[in-house]
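CHAIN AND CONFORMATION:
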Amino acid sequence: MCELLAMSANVPTDIVFSFTGLAQRGGVTGPHTDGWGITFYEGKGSRTFKDSKPSCESMVAQLIQSYPIKSEVVVSHIRQANRGAVALENTHPFTRELWGCYWTYAHNGQLSDYEQKFVTTRFYPVGDTDSEAAFCWILDCVVKQFGDEKPTDMKAVFNYIATLAEQIRALGVFNMIITDGEYLLSFCSNNLCYITRKAPFGKATLIDTDVVIDFQKETTPNDVVTVIATRPLTNNEQWQILTPGQWCLFKQGLLL
């Protein structure tokens, strides 16, 4: 299956260290060779990089590993295809506009018998994956529940999205990351974890490649950065392992 990576931080932060570890799983230490993508939020704007090639040999992935883009919210995905061809339009993360915001989503898992459930009237898939169909259905349901104007209570919106994710989990494996660029929700079906880094910062060592970073040299005492991943990316830190059906909502690096 695929692997997810996301970040929520209270200050613009680069994800070069974590992405370097994830990229190795796209063909070196893992079998996820059917494309990859990453979305960075900068204020209301976002920039997305995708490639249908394996991340371990993608020149675009090499750019991301060497170019420290500063962002407060990041969503990334490396793909092992099960539904839909290996093609750019089927590469995560997927993005749609809702309430004047870019919403970004990525999914790890496989769903069955979903076509009749994911009937939509406003948001439609571009590719032919179960993942994108689920994303469009979620946003369709959100609009039907909350209307065309952005609610003042966004936590209620994400709480509702978690109930939709639980419905989708009945169709198969559904590990999900979804964000509006401010809040970030992670939903666990079988494999998902996170770590929150804050002062006092220390060193971290990647599992998938020989890279060590001293966060104390890269941060300030006020920084709070949470990284979410399918599996732990470092071998000397305590990651929080989510249980099936558990979900977490983050804002500016903090667990809400």
